[in-house]
Every structure is written in C-alpha cells, then in structure tokens.
Design a protein that fits this description.
The protein is about 30% helix and about 35% strand. It is built from 4 helices and 5 strands. The radius of gyration is 15 Å and the shape is globular. The protein starts with a helix and ends with a helix.
Amino acid sequence: MKNLPHLLAALLVAGCVHGDNVERLQAGMDREQVRAVMGPPEASTHSPGKDCAYYTVLRDFWSRTPWSMSDRYYVCFTDGKVDTYGKATQSAQMTAP
C-alpha cells in the first residue's frame, strides 16, 4: 500500500509525451515522422480531408503544479502531412475525444 502513490504517478506519466518533443514538430511532417517524435496518439478525430491526433504533454518541472502537470496538444494532418499543431484550448478539448 505504501507504493500506491508512486504506482499511480508512474501510470500517469507512462502515457505522456515530454514537452521537448513538441518543439521538434514541423509543418509538412508525415504521420510516421510525427509518431517517431510523439509516439502513438491518445485519441484522434477524422473529418473529410483532415485528421487530428491528440497527446498529453508533460509540463516542464517549473511549470507544474500538483493539480496540473500536463497539457493537451493536437497535431492535424491534411493529405497526410502536418498542417497545424499546438496546445489544445479548453473549448477544443470539449469537442475532441
């Protein structure tokens, strides 16, 4: 039971991407290049001609607070290439899975 908080923290961090990886994204990258940088997405949305992938990204140490250690980011593809990417806003998160 003593290790339960550590186990929960490890599980939370296991599915997250480090913030430095987001800085490596560039417009025009293909899906495999994004997967190599960010790993598999947590969720995705599809619409005609556009697909978006969603990731949980850990904040750097100095930006963390006990109740907020990560942010949600999106990467959107048009015709298989990165078109837009960035931090997902609260309203965008409500419409995404």
